[in-house]
UniProtKB/TrEMBL annotation:
Residue ranges of domain ABC3 transporter permease C-terminal in the record: 262-375, 714-822
Organism ancestry: Bacteria, Pseudomonadati, Pseudomonadota, Alphaproteobacteria, Rhodobacterales
Entry annotated with the keyword Transmembrane helix: yes
Name of one Pfam family that matches: MacB_PCD
Protein name: FtsX-like permease family protein
Length: 835
């Protein structure tokens, strides 16, 4: 080891020339992963530090459809230092003349709101302004909602048939982070004013939240246990500051983990550059290795010296990547904080930096050890012979085992850090599959170039380009591997985004309703249906009774312990009851009309299979604070993709007899009728909430587009790494192109012809990389749309064309940057040096 260290030190003193690509590839990959990790850690820290502000208190007890009874409220008040009651629901905000109507997420607050944090208003009138003016109650509106209704402070508008006056624009709402997804912009009114509207009538869909601050010495875990015991079977949901925004936390973790995995794809591309760099380095050091072997150095000593050098360079590249990530994230902390859903402070955290360092170190080791293993086969006598230097083959079994162990460690680290084994293994398997497909395609292109070469003799520039692509030391494999993977990720993102937008633009008008109508009082249903049918464009109006309930138990056991964290078990779900089935039964029997036996329930077949349910199982659902246990009588084929009415749970009518409820309706109408329908609803049925499906899907589309941009940004690092590898390949091939140019000049070729051959070679390789990337990306996009989004795949030729043109441009630029010297060198200099 002492001799190996001495040799390594001597080699390292000569500098890092020849290892710039190695370091750049490693640095970019590590920086991408570390940057994503730092932002993810900042959001996690923000959720932890600002938990009480996001929740609106240190703890929250939430009820659906109802407010706490007097004894329940007395118990809540007895446990807290302060209590604030908030009622949250959806409603329609309408201008006084009814010309403009908008969906709003309405919040009724008491005099203690907000318990924690500060509300920012424009003008800064204070929460007391909700008392109103001129005999009318006041309201605060989100600027988006105020602008849509063209309202300014002092103007009147209507909510639930009640007139309000706008007192201020709601600039910052402290407890917005834990509220989950909202379909409309926020409006805030006094709870006392909301009580004077019909919006809180029995059966109306609203949620009541009691936010608490705790007295000195009170323990959150102890209070949670006491509350769950006190409200067992009452439909209470508990939240506290330790996990104030679980939906945001879950989304952040999953998206962050996926972006890290995309960053690993960039490291894989960088691994191609590392492999090529180490291979070229060993070839350049052939004379040095031969001399050392001739002087008696063992293979182990030489390998040790080379390993020490690579280890030192890996440490340098990893540290440079961590430094770059830290600098970029700290420099952009202002825009990052502004774009986040919760207040964050971006700082340097150890965990994401360590994670990126582990990924970078393992990747460098895996891709560097393979070419380094060839040192075992090199002998002093053969190293001076050019033919022997080019000899390549598989490493020995020992080295293969080591590389396999390091690969397994990389996979294990990825699974452990992400916490999402299926996503991790699927993504990394996709990356490995893409690299394999690109490698096979590159070999096929080289073979095709050799076959077409003789047929292109009439076109000298094309002939020379094809000959270079099919040559033994062709750069085709490195180019297609380096560029193809980054383009594949971008192609997949483009196809998925295009497919989702296409589904919204093309399928929605054919399949989906124009509106969902909620909170329809049952006595108003006949009049509403009749009024909607007066519109000539309305083709169909469907109505069903609707309640909301929480699936708490399966066969008497806690549902989450039985079926895990399935989406059906997260929060409350819409439920209905019916005498006849609306969907096709897949198993079991429907109950007869006028059924009066024990409660029965029919479950959506797909969700039932995911939950592991079978006919005869018993489900306990808490509705309006009452536990209803029902036996599964049948499974139904529910197609939620049509955006029509569909429920996971449909009960027999006797199970919910007498329960206060409202009606849910869907209206099928063309876009031209939507505005008149909305105006009629706001004037004639002011308590009904209308959700425009097209507008809601537009919000979903915008959210998905934002995710796609984040993934595309991560993929762009992969592409940048690939371009770095291209530059390295072009630089490494400069000498070969100089010899090629010298030979062509000797045979009478002009500089223009040689330049055209270089350009054609680049364009062919770029087009091939882009075309293969489009095929791989389309396959990945189809899989995501088909199996994850359950949407129809439509190939987008525009996105595909951009990918192909981008690949051609990248390879052309990289090739032309290193074309000047081969074109300017004199043939005699090159050919004599070769002799």
């Amino acid at each position: 080891m002492r001799l190996a260290v001495t040799i390594a030190r001597a080699e390292l003193r000569s500098g890092i020339k020849g290892f710039r690509i190695f370091l750049l590839c490693l640095m970019l990959g590590v920086a991408a992963i570390a940057a994503v990790g730092l932002v993810r850690e900042a959001i996690r820290a923000g959720l932890s530090d600002q938990g009480a502000v996001l929740l609106g208190g240190q703890a929250q007890l939430e009820f659906t459809y109802r407010r706490a009874t007097a004894p329940e409220r007395d118990w809540i008040v007895s446990q807290a230092a302060r209590v604030s009651e908030v009622v949250d629901l959806r409603s329609m905000a309408t201008t006084g003349d009814g010309a403009e109507t908008a969906l709003t997420q309405l919040k009724g607050v008491d005099e203690n709101w907000p318990l924690v944090g500060q509300v920012v208003l424009d003008p800064p009138v204070g929460v007391a302004a909700l008392a109103g003016q001129g005999g009318l109650p006041g309201a605060f509106l989100d600027p988006v909602l105020a602008d849509r209704l063209a309202l300014k402070p002092g103007d009147r508008f209507r909510l639930g048939g009640q007139d309000f006056v706008l007192m201020a624009r709601l600039m910052t709402e402290p407890d917005a982070g834990g509220a989950g997804m909202a379909f409309g912009a926020r409006s805030v009114v006094a709870l006392s004013a909301l009580e004077r509207t019909p919006l809180l009538a029995p059966g109306s869909l609203y949620e009541t939240q009691y936010r608490l601050t705790l007295p000195e010495g009170q323990s959150l875990p102890a209070l949670k246990s006491a509350a769950q015991k006190r409200f067992d079977g009452a439909g209470m949901r508990w939240s506290d500051a330790r996990r104030a925004a679980p939906a945001v936390e879950r989304f952040t973790d999953r998206l962050g983990s996926f972006l890290v995995l995309v960053g690993l794809a960039g490291l894989a591309v960088g691994g191609v550059g590392i492999f090529a760099t180490v291979q070229a380095w060993i070839a350049r050091k052939a004379a040095t290795i031969a001399t050392l072997r001739a002087l008696g150095a063992s293979g182990a000593t030489i390998r040790g010296a080379f390993l020490i050098q690579l280890a030192a360079l890996t440490v340098l590249g990893v540290l440079a990547g961590l430094a770059l990530a830290a600098a970029l994230v700290l420099a952009a902390q202002g825009p990052i904080a502004a774009a986040m859903p919760v207040p964050v402070t971006v700082t340097l955290a150890a965990r994401p930096l360590l994670e990126a360092a582990i990924y970078g170190t393992l990747t460098a080791a895996i891709f560097a050890l393979w070419p380094l293993a060839q040192l075992s086969e090199l002998r002093a006598a053969t190293l001076y012979r050019e033919a022997q230097r080019a000899r390549r083959g598989l490493p020995g079994w020992g080295m293969l085992a080591l590389i396999g162990a390091l690969t397994a460690a990389l996979l294990g680290a990825a699974v452990a850090f992400s916490g999402l084994p299926a996503l991790t293994l699927g993504t990394l398997g996709g990356v490995a599959g893409a690299l394999l497909a690109l490698a096979f395609a590159a070999a096929g292109i080289r073979r095709l170039a050799r076959r077409l070469g003789p047929q292109s003799a009439r076109f000298p520039a094309l002939h020379a380009a094809l000959a270079a692509i099919g040559a033994p030391r062709s750069e085709a494999v490195a180019v297609i591997l380096a560029l193809g993977l980054g383009l594949s990720v971008l192609a997949a993102v483009g196809q998925v985004e295009s497919g989702l937008r296409g589904a919204i633009a093309k399928d929605l008008p054919k399949l989906a309703p124009a509106f969902f109508l909620m909170d329809i009082p049952p006595p108003d249903r006949p009049a509403l249906v009749e009024r909607m049918q007066e519109f000539a464009g309305v083709s169909r109006v469907d109505t069903v009774p609707m309640l909301r309930g929480i699936l708490t138990k399966i066969n008497g056991e806690d549902a989450r312990k039985v079926a895990g964290e399935h989406w059906v078990l997260r929060g409350d779900r819409g439920v209905t009851f019916a005498e006849t089935p609306r969907e096709k039964l897949t198993a079991g029997q429907w109950w007869p009309k006028d059924y009066a036996g024990p409660p029965l329930v029919s479950v959506s077949a797909k969700e039932a299979a995911e939950l592991g349910l079978k006919l005869g199982d018993r489900l306990t659902v808490n509705i309006l604070g009452r536990d209803i246990e029902a036996e599964i009588a049948s499974f139904r084929d529910v197609d939620f993709s049509t955006m029509g009415i569909g429920f996971v749970l449909t009960f027999s009518p006797n199970a919910l007899a007498g329960a206060p409820h409202t009606e849910l309706a869907t209206i099928y109408a063309p876009p031209a009728e939507e505005a008149p329908i909305l105006r009629a609803l706001s004037k004639e049925f002011p308590t009904v909430t209308a959700i425009p499906v097209r507008e809601a899907m537009g919000r979903v589309s915008d959210a998905l587009a934002a995710i796609a941009r984040a993934v595309a940004l991560a993929a762009s690092v992969t592409l940048l790494t690939g371009f770095t590898v291209l530059l390295g390949a072009a630089a490494a091939g400069e000498e070969a192109r100089a010899r090629e140019a010298a030979l062509l000049k000797t045979l009478g070729a002009t500089r223009g012809l040689i330049l055209r051959s270089f350009a054609l070679r680049a364009l062919i390789l770029g087009a091939a990389s882009g075309a293969i990337a489009v095929a791989v990306g389309a396959l990945a996009g189809w899989a995501v749309l088909r199996f994850v989004m359950e949407a129809t795949f439509r190939f987008d030729p525009v996105s595909a064309g951009e990918i192909v043109l981008g690949g051609m441009a990248a390879v052309l630029i990289a090739g032309l940057l290193f074309a000047a010297r081969p074109l300017s060198v004199r043939p005699a200099q090159v050919l004599r040096a070769q002799d």
